[in-house]
Amino acid sequence: MAMFITGGAGFIGSAFIRSWVKRYPNDTVINFDKLTYAGNLDNLAEVADQATYQFVRGDICDAAALRAAIPDGCDAIVHFAAESHVDRSILSAREFILTNVLGTQTLLDVAREKGVKRFLHISTDEVGGSVPEDQFFAEDGPLAPSSPYAASKAAAEHLVRAAAHTFGLNALITRTSNNYGPYQFPEKLIPLALTNALADRPIPVYGDGQQVRDWIHVDDNCAALRLVLEKGQPGATYHIGGRSPLPNRTVLTMLLELLGKPTSLLTEVTDRLGHDRRYAVDCSKIERELGWRPQVAFREGLAQTIAWYQNNPVWVARARSGEYRTYYAQMYGAL
């Protein structure tokens, strides 16, 4: 197979590439990434020298760059590339509209030109908005995004479905709950709290910390994405969840317990604007149709994640300091 991955230097994209190369070493994998702040090629050091792996720096809003990078008749595009941090979208939505909406449409257009055989769009549970207690967001549920980030991802989904309906593009959509695991950029909840705790720094807690998120280990998510890509029904949407919904404060307390650190590190800060109270996806469809189940229990996965960060201080230091950005900017230059 020839695989074209957008955003493959990010947290989930790099995990997907590492797992795919290990599982299918003879497949060609092209990683197309702009290398914004969240794109870190340190995440792909273990596959960088593989003959079947290729990195191309580029912007998904640049149709010419996409045409040059996507091989004719490409077997599959897996579209991870996105601006994804809610706080950043509240400060400025422009970058989110450009990348998540315009970039997705540009990629869809070029995918059709190139005769791409399968297109997997990676979305988020946040497009469904806050879910009431004792309810779950199903694939056919209404979209009710609450943040500029979620709104941009909902718009991207509509464009993918339009391409499938109007042009017959073989497209699928996945919506995944909160991922965690190795190589996650330290602005997200778990790696931020973990790296702060290791340095005995305060850990910010939005509001009362009772916002509920469903947690899934990135390896479980990648296993689900492989199944969807290989066996999912064209045009279908699949929810991928860890069946581990927990309040943020509970997650942070568990992390500190595993580290042997005091809960006094938890420091309440002003809540995020428009903060959704609860996300919870119904993932019974992928379990029923494709036989997928999450394998990593949350506490076990959190302990493994802690161990990885403790054992990889160089990666942590480069990620927190931004050293990796300087290094790769010098290597690849400005777009």
Descriptive notes:
The chain is of the alpha/beta class. It has a domain at 2-181 and 216-241 and 282-295 and 321-332: 3-Layer(aba) Sandwich (Rossmann fold). The chain is built from 12 helices and 12 strands. It has helices at 11-23, 63-69, 86-91, 94-113, 148-167, 189-198, 218-231, 248-259, 284-290, 298-311, 313-321, 323-332, and strands at residues 2-6, 28-33, 53-57, 76-79, 119-124, 171-176, 178-180, 203-206, 212-217, 237-240, 245-247, 266-269. The strands form 3 sheets. The chain has a 7-stranded parallel β-sheet, with helices on both faces. A 3-stranded mixed β-sheet has the order 7-9-11. Strands 8-12 form a two-stranded parallel sheet. Strand 5, helix 5 and strand 6 (171-176) form a beta-alpha-beta unit. It is globular and about 55 Å long. The two termini are 29 Å apart. The mean pLDDT is 96.
Produce a short descriptive summary.
This protein is of the alpha/beta class and 335 residues long.
- What is the C-alpha radius of gyration, as a whole number of Å? 19 Å
Overall helicity:
40-55%
Low-confidence stretches: none
Q: What is the level 1 CATH name of the domain at 2-181 and 216-241 and 282-295 and 321-332?
A: Alpha Beta
Mean pLDDT: 96
List SSEs in N-to-C order. EHEEHEHHEHEEHEEHEEHEHHHH
What does the overall shape look like? globular
Between the first and last Cα atoms, what is the distance in angstroms?
Answer: 29 Å
- The secondary-structure class comes to alpha/beta
CATH level-four homologous superfamily name of the domain at 2-181 and 216-241 and 282-295 and 321-332: NAD(P)-binding Rossmann-like Domain
CATH architecture of the domain at 2-181 and 216-241 and 282-295 and 321-332: 3-Layer(aba) Sandwich
What is the CATH topology assignment of the domain at 2-181 and 216-241 and 282-295 and 321-332? Rossmann fold
With strands numbered from the N-terminus, the spatial order across the biggest sheet is: 3-2-1-4-5-6-10
The percent range for strand residues is 15-25%
The main pleated sheet reads as: 7 strands, parallel
**Given the structure, what is the number of helices?**
12
Total strands:
12
